[in-house]
């Protein structure tokens, strides 16, 4: 057993090094899902005891249908795996279209467990815990391969097949860690008036406006109580935008790299420009330097998802995108630095 643990730790360290080298290399943008699968995902799964021939089904997505799973780990409680490029930004919640699509496919195929991965970031979801947060392991952040390898044991074949509940327990444990920030967010949304009136009862000064009280309440961010909760973002705030600009932690660094490159940068430049005005969803391609081909529409969709998740743009009911005005100073600062 100790020999197996050492081998897995060594493999994690090796893959972590490959990811960092490729991500910083000149051809990083050319790496696709197939490379991710062959170079990163299947080797790790083999290291976790899954046989590439007998244990893994390789799904084929006809016509580039992104909604189909890429791999299925075959056992009594199968696991569906969605594979993305190494530079794909990891989803941050269940509302992400890729997570929704993967879970739908798992439900159709009666697969109880789901993994989203770009080879570096591994996100785990269980159909039995639909409201729980995504449990995440990032290989490139591994300081100690043994520690990351220990986290990955929830999908080691012999352990998973004998105790699949460990998969659920890992997610549930994270859920408990961030239960307070989730509850606080819901209270702010659903009981705003009650909170404001409660605070007014304790105030000696009566001329404080409701929006000032609400702004203060939103600064109380219990998501800082535990490290695993720090990337949970509901409605982005100035604090989130500042971290995006300055933080060297992996999720912020990777997102920042996207915003400063290629058509992402072009979309951001349009949003902060003097010529900006709300634009039709179908016309985004005209602002990012891409064509309206099927292939380029996928890239445009990814860019829009990123800008929406970080709160730089929002969707309106009249089929248009609008910029979020309070985010513009931060977006300008983000774009003015070199990639």
Can you describe what's shown?
The radius of gyration is 22 Å and the shape is globular. The termini are far apart. Mean pLDDT is 82; it is low at 223-233. Helix 10 (238-246) packs parallel to helix 15 (328-336). It has helices spanning 2-23, 33-47, 97-108, 145-151, 157-162, 165-177, 179-190, 192-202, 210-219, 238-246, 250-259, 262-272, 285-288, 294-309, 328-336, and strands at 56-58, 71-73, 79-83, 113-117, 121-126, 135-138, 279-280, 313-316, 320-323. It has three domains: 2-175, tt1808, chain A; 179-225, no CATH class; 234-339, Arc Repressor Mutant, subunit A, CATH 1.10.10.10. The strands form two sheets. It has a six-stranded mixed sheet with strand order 1-2-3-4-5-6. The chain has a three-stranded antiparallel sheet with strand order 7-9-8. With 339 residues, it is α+β, with helices and mostly antiparallel strands.
